[in-house]
């Protein structure tokens, strides 16, 4: 009888120990890679500084970066003539030139004044390096202006001056193939559509410097 009682007590104690052991079992650890607080796998949106170097600038509209030298005028001292009758467009263009260091821009509002500036410079023994010429101006449009400039240098007495004609770059809102071909056929060196791109303007100045043999030609 005593043995039976002892056996029952031992069985109850064993059951209690088993239950307690199950109750305090620690669940397996959750892998750290599955933690919901980890964000390393998510794409990061890093802030890009507005300028990473003095010669780099960016547009606010698209964020596209352009490479240009703010001191271009120091190594390419170009003499620039701008023929543009729209004063707002002229202001924008001169502001762009200013970003490259060009401050002394000669501005006229029609082809008649542009031709007067060119002939006056020639009589003084110097010449503009480049004429940025709007195609649609009062009194004398850009097409006629380019023709008159070409005729002037073609008929000028060789002994009167040794200056060479300025490069003429057309400025127009029309981007058709016909307009481009017409400008090039009149002896213009390049064709730029409005609104002007600051990078294209910079490249046009570089090409002008190369053609005129002025200064260092690197970007």
From TrEMBL:
The keyword Amino-acid biosynthesis appears for this protein: no
PROSITE patterns in alphabetical order: RESPONSE_REGULATORY (PS50110)
Cross-referenced InterPro entries: CheY-like_superfamily, Sig_transdc_resp-reg_receiver
Assigned keywords, A-Z: Phosphoprotein, Two-component regulatory system
Domain of life: Eukaryota
BP term (GO), one: phosphorelay signal transduction system
Record's protein name: Response regulatory domain-containing protein
């Amino acid at each position: 009888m005593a043995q039976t009682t002892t056996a029952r007590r031992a069985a109850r104690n064993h059951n209690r120990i088993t239950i307690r052991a199950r109750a305090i079992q620690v669940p397996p650890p959750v892998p750290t890679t599955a933690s919901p607080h980890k964000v390393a796998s998510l794409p990061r949106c890093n802030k890009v500084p507005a300028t990473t170097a003095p010669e780099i600038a960016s547009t606010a509209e698209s964020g596209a970066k352009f490479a240009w030298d703010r001191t271009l005028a120091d190594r390419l001292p170009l003499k620039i003539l701008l023929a543009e009758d729209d004063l707002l467009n002229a202001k924008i263009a001169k502001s762009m030139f200013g970003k490259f260091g060009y401050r002394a821009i000669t501005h006229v509002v029609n082809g008649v004044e542009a031709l007067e500036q060119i002939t006056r410079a020639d009589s003084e023994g110097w010449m503009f390096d480049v004429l940025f010429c709007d195609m649609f101006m009062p009194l004398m449009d850009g097409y006629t202006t380019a023709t008159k400039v070409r005729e002037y240098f073609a008929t000028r007495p060789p002994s009167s001056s040794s200056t060479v004609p300025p490069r003429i770059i057309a400025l127009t809102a029309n981007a058709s193939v016909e307009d481009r071909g017409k400008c090039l056929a009149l002896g213009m060196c390049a064709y730029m559509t409005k609104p002007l791109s600051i990078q294209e303007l910079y490249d046009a100045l570089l090409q002008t410097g190369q053609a005129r043999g002025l200064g260092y030609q690197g970007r």
